[in-house]
Specification:
With 182 residues, the chain is an all-alpha fold. 88% of the residues lie in helices and 0% in strands. Residues 138-182 are annotated as: Disordered.
C-alpha cells in the first residue's frame, strides 16, 4: 500500500507551528529582558544577556540539526515511493521554509550579539579613558616618566665615566711603562 502523503507531513506542520511559537516567545522574553535590564550594573547584565544569547544559539543549532535529520528521514521515505521527485521536492520546500525561519531568528540573535559586544567594547573604552584621565594616575605616570628619565641620565653619566676611566687607564699604563725601572 502506497500512502498518498508523506509520513512526516503532520510532524512538519506541528514543528513549524512549534518553531513559530518559540520564536514569538523568544522575542517577547528578549524584549522584557532588554527593557527591564538594570542600568546600574550594565556590563554584568550585558555579559549575562550575551551568555543567554549563546544558549539560544545552541538551541537554534540543535533545531537545525533536528530539521536536517527530519529532512533526511523524509528523503529516505521518498526513495521508497514511486513518485520520488514530487516527494523530495515537497521535503526540500519544507526544509527551505524551516531554514528561513531559523535564519530569521539567527539574524535577530546575531544583530543583538553584535550590539551587546559593541556596547561592552564602548564601555571598556570609556573606563580606560576615565582611568587615563584620573589625576592620581596622571601623577603616577608623570613620576614614572621622571624617574625613568633620571635613570637614563645616570646611566649615561656612568657610561661616560667608564669610558673616561678607560682612556685614563691607557694613559696611566703608558706612564707606568715609561717610569718603570725595567
Amino acid at each position: 500500500m502506497v500512502p498518498d502523503q508523506p509520513i512526516f507531513t503532520n510532524l512538519h506542520y506541528n514543528s513549524v507551528n512549534w518553531l513559530g511559537s518559540v520564536h514569538k516567545l523568544w522575542l517577547l522574553t528578549s524584549l522584557l529582558v532588554w527593557c527591564f535590564a538594570p542600568v546600574v550594573n550594565a556590563s554584568q547584565s550585558l555579559q549575562n544577556e550575551l551568555l543567554t544569547l549563546d544558549q539560544i544559539q545552541e538551541k537554534i543549532d540543535l533545531k537545525r540539526d533536528w530539521m536536517k535529520y527530519r529532512y533526511d528521514m523524509e528523503f529516505q521515505t521518498c526513495q521508497d515511493l514511486f513518485f520520488t521527485t514530487s516527494c523530495t521536492t515537497k521535503a526540500k520546500k519544507q526544509l527551505q521554509k524551516e531554514e528561513k525561519d531559523l535564519f530569521d531568528q539567527e539574524n535577530l540573535l546575531h544583530t543583538r550579539q553584535r550590539d551587546i559586544k559593541k556596547a561592552l567594547k564602548d564601555e571598556a573604552e570609556q573606563l580606560r579613558i576615565a582611568e587615563r584621565a584620573d589625576p592620581k594616575q596622571v601623577q603616577i605616570r608623570a613620576n614614572n616618566r621622571a624617574s625613568f628619565e633620571e635613570k637614563q641620565r645616570e646611566k649615561a653619566l656612568r657610561e661616560a665615566d667608564v669610558e673616561e676611566r678607560r682612556k685614563e687607564a691607557a694613559k696611566r699604563a703608558q706612564e707606568n711603562r715609561n717610569t718603570s725601572p725595567f
